[in-house]
Amino acid sequence: MADYKKEIERRRTFAIISHPDAGKTTLTEKLLLYGGAIQQAGMVKGKRHMRHAVSDWMDIEKQRGISVTSSVMQFEYNNYCINILDTPGHADFSEDTYRTLMAADSAVMVIDAAKGVEKQTRKLFKVCTLRHIPIFTFINKMDRDARSPYDLTDQIEQELGIKTYAMNWPIGSGREFKGVYDRAAKKILTFTAEETANGKHQVEESASDLSDPKLSDLLGEDLLSTLKDDVELLDGAGADFSLEDVRRGKLSPVFFGSALTNFGVEPFLQEFLRMTTTPLPRKADIGEIDPMDSHFSAFVFKIQANMNKAHRDRVAFLRICSGEFDRGMEVVHMQGGRKMKLMAPQQLMAEQREIIDHAYAGDIIGVFDPGVFSIGDTLCASDKKFCFGGIPTFAPEHFARVSPKDTMKRKQFVKGMTQIAQEGAIQIFQELNGSMEEVVVGAVGQLQFEVLEYRLENEYKVDIRMENLPHEYIRWIENEGLDPKSLDLTSDTRCIQDLKGNHLLIFVSEWNITWALQHNHGLQLSEFGGAKL
Ligand code: GDP
Questions:
Q1: Which of 225, 229, 137, 234 has the alpha carbon at shortest distance from 184?
Q2: pLDDT class of 167 with cuts at 50, 70, 90
Q3: Fewest CB within 10 angstroms: 225, 277, 316, 447, which?
Q4: 195, 204 in Cβ contact below 8 A?
Q5: Residues with Cβ < 8 Å from 432, sequence gap 6 or more?
Q6: What are residue 180's phi and psi, to 5 degrees?
Q7: Where does GTP bind (predicted)?
Q8: Per-residue pLDDT tens for 506-529?
Q9: Exposed/middle/buried for 100, CB within 10 Å: 0-12, 13-18, 19+?
Q10: Rounded to two decimals, what is the model's pTM?
């Protein structure tokens, strides 16, 4: 096998998703610990709670390096080359998460054992199912009082609509947490609180099987007999395990553990790596692109501005989809229609950014963006050109009319708005026949307006006037050539256009959408303005 193929085959690229506080940062850190990418827990600076998300964002702004290193991390473990994509937990940034998931081949869903499935878990899970990627569940915080494992797995099945298969089963919880039973190996991994010392170092896990006479001393009669009953019940009633269903995103393998104390993390990692997929093929306009194809291809899934404030630069994050990347190679930026060299390609390890010479399908690299890339753009080799399907945008739910306070600052305003929109943080619309001096901005979360205002002032030196609009729903008009002025609409429905000139309507309530459809025969509306998946 060609060397580049061997490299691709050992790549595993996944995202970790969770409701804030379930333990995503802690689990990520422990995975890095096993991979030797960090020596001691406590080194990955998380975004903390995002309670003050805007001020956090500003802090992040000040410490860009941190936010970036925590967004993509690569490490080696047992000859696998692993790329972890971190995702913001805050609901207002779910679009960011959504795009990040487009770059992942599987997802790990972290669930708090006391809280079960939470609001953000549901939302993020939905995005994963859109892509049919494998989803693994890590039920965390078993060292605390937890809900019954039956309740937890039932809830996942009922609320998220995916079958589950418990790979291991917890023995007690909270103070009584003794460890887990590994169902395939038929072994018990015992948890010893003293050993873990708050999970600062890797823990040794000791194994014994159910017939071991020492177990009744170790677990106590009650826990042991509950465990024996549970195992019988699971093996008897439970569905069969199917790796194929896992790979198709139809069955989620469930692991119980405690990231903080490090318990169950390494067995999870090993099983996860065994079951998850190598880099997946991607759909493009010429058909599916095989990751093993020798021609390089990649798409932009994230753009981050001003990594270095002094230089005002941007970094575009690329997911390599096929072939091998060599530093200095020439590629074609399909949307820009020109050849270019990717400048300063970098890969991100827990604490450092490194300039890289080679990267392979499955990898995520950051490249210098001179302001030409947009989310979803394709880069490919000049002797095999095609475009990947774009990344559909979330329908914004908040709208505001925005203009510069000082009309002399028009140029900076337009530049700032356009660049921030290219990064995908907001969407900009115009009034019909409108100019760029006053635009309608759509955002998925209210916080994005605050971030917009902050960034325009700080990065582009423009103060803005912002007037919130009461609209909450957006629909693109699908009928070609339809004159929107001819439509019969309620007085609070507005017609605007996107920057490509497509017409769309914004509504204050769903009732108004129904009204529009009933009073305009043949009107076709769609929720997505972006490309199809
Ligand atoms: P994130 O918001 O999902 O990234 O969550 P964090 O990893 O920041 O964890 C949130 C809080 O839960 C922190 O105070 C962690 O120390 C704590 N935590 C994480 N995992 C565990 C665990 O397994 N057991 C216990 N007791 N606490 C945990």
A1: 234
A2: very high
A3: 225
A4: yes
A5: 484, 485, 495, 496, 497, 503
A6: -130, 155
A7: 18-25, 86-90, 140-143
A8: 999 999 999 999 999 999 998 876
A9: buried
A10: 0.81
Alpha-helix residue ranges (DSSP H) falling in 17-118: 24-34, 53-62, 64-69, 94-102
Read off the pLDDT band of 401 (50, 70, 90).
very high
211 band by pLDDT with thresholds 50, 70 and 90 = confident
List C-alpha distances in Å: 388 to 284, 366, 424, 491: 4, 18, 18, 40
- Mutation probe of ligand 1 site: the residue of 86, 143, 260 with most atoms within 8 A of C-beta: 260
Mean pLDDT of 452-477: 92
> Locate tokens 């553990």: which residue?
257
Angle formed at CA 518 by CA 512 and CA 521, multiple of 5 degrees: 130
- Taking the C-alpha atoms of residue 15 and residue 390, their distance in angstroms, rounded to an integer, is 20
> HSE-up of 522 (CA within 13 Å, CB side)?
6
Cα 223 to Cα 390: distance, rounded to the nearest angstrom:
52
> How far is 114 from 107, CA to CA, in rounded Å?
21
512 vs 347, residue with greater confidence: 512
Question: Which residue is closest in CA terms to ligand 1's atom 6?
Answer: 23
- List of residues 6+ apart from 514 with CB closer than 8 A: none
Q: What's the gap in Å between 309 CA and the centre of ligand 1?
A: 32
Atom 21 of ligand 1 has which residue's CA nearest to it? 260
Q: Give the pLDDT mean for 455-460.
A: 87
pLDDT of residue 20: 83
Secondary structure letter of residue 44 according to DSSP: S
Range list of β-strands (E), 160-313: 163-166, 168-171, 179-182, 187-190, 206-209, 251-256, 282-284, 287-289, 297-305
Instruction: Quote the tokens at residue 143.
Output: 């060292």
Q: Which atom of ligand 1 is nearest to the CA of 144?
A: 26
Give Cα separations from 533 to 43, 112, 302, 376 (angstroms): 37, 31, 17, 11
Instruction: State the angle between helix axes of 24-34 and 265-275 in degrees (0 to 180), rounded to the nearest 10.
Output: 80
pLDDT of 350 strictly over 50: no
